[in-house]
Amino acid sequence: MADDTAEELDSFRRKWHEEVTARSKGAAPYNSARRSQRSSGTAHPERAAAPAFHKPYWDTGADGVEDQGYYDLEDKDGERKLGQNGEGKHPMSRIEPKSALEHYERAVERESEGSLGDSLSLYRKAYRLELDAGVDRLYKNKHFPPSSFKSKTTDPNPSNASVTVPNTAHHSLNGPPVPSIPQLIASFASLSIPPADPLTEGSRPPPCPIAEIPSEILINVLVHTAIKDTTSFARLSLVCKRLAYLVATEDRIWKRVCLGPDIGFTAMHYKWTCSIIGHPLSLSLDDLNNELNVLSFDDDPFPLSSTHPTYKTMLHTRPRIRYNGCYISTVNYIRPGGATASQVSWNSPVHIVTYYRYLRFFRDGTCASLLTTTEPADVVHHLTKENLHNLHPSGLPSSVMSHALRGRWKLSGDPYSTSPSDQDQEEGILHVETEGADAGHPHPKYMYKMMLQLKSVGRGAGATRNNKLAWLGYWSYNRLTDDWSEFGLKNDKAYFWSRVKSYGDGE
Fold first, then answer.
1. How far is C-alpha 165 from the chain's CA centre?
2. How would residue 299 be classed by pLDDT, with cut points 50, 70 and 90?
3. Do the beta carbons of residue 368 and residue 381 sit within 8 Å?
4. What is this structure's pTM?
5. How far apart are CA 122 and CA 103, in angstroms?
């Protein structure tokens, strides 16, 4: 019995010794690496003190990656936005900049928004942080690298070379000539809408019901699509060749959009339709007779001409007002400040003044005009007919509309004329009349009148048209004395159209 107990003790001591030995051998490389790391001359950056709890190496996610915590995400709903190309700000833009390049990027962003005071202070901080290398060059190399610009290469085979010289300009040697865009679109006439590819190899492709619809029904569907959103209708040309052909050549769709009361020229006003405060005009019998004489019983009130050969061209090039957004003018100017008499200063202060002008047009011929220092994100959503009054409490967000002015608008020119070269019937001039300085008075004395020129900014086939209002004149009219006084437009800038999604198709 004693011999068995001794053998068990010897066996336990042997196993315990082997286990201790194995553990000491396994920790040796780690300890030796730590000692070699401490003895080496390389310095490592100091780290913040780690928390007391260490997560075990086996307590990871399903893929062996530890869970991460996200603490920098901000509420995206707090950002309101304007327009088609991105109307908000990324949450990361709210993080305070640290480096010189980040300050410079934030300064460029604030300058594009019209806040010159903030951008100027950010520019100064950026140049203070980066004294050696120019921060403007760093910004240019990051956002506009030389590789993004294509270098002009000399043509080894110019088009005026001899026919015997192999040249791509001569299309009689290597193949057929490259067709033009109208020829390419005309070749899509006999094509149909292709179905989607099968999900797996060897299986049937999914059904495509729209490919089985007759052309008459398909065109009717596209008409409703174009009325609802003309931009989405134009983008259908990217889906397939059949839809590209219909979008480019089906003039019945463009005629309905061009002559319709939604966004077409039937919704434009070429005469005053109401008073400045929105009341209907009182017409005399002679005025009614003149209206009847001008009326045309033709089904085509806007005929095609050499200037507008198609309804698609007419919609894109003829001046018209947009109802699904507002026109905004950002004004910045610098004026000298006055130094205090009790303090001696080596330099004189300078004030950067920023304010905004807003114009929104309504379908009934009325409009709203506003001059304020409030930024667009806090104004455009309140620029509605319901807010055109001066009874807004100061604590509400809509209080910015307390100084909004009611008005009316009309376009110049004869919509039924086919010769726009006539100076008396020139289109593209916008007349706006609004309330004056005594707005809200039962018997107002003043009235403001603006004349603006409809223009387009942006080049290319896909550029937005009629998105700029250039100043032609701004006057104040005194009804009692019948005097006109002109306002100076030294610092005022043109209006630019911005789409506002909350407006929908306009009021």
1. 49
2. low
3. no
4. 0.65
5. 6
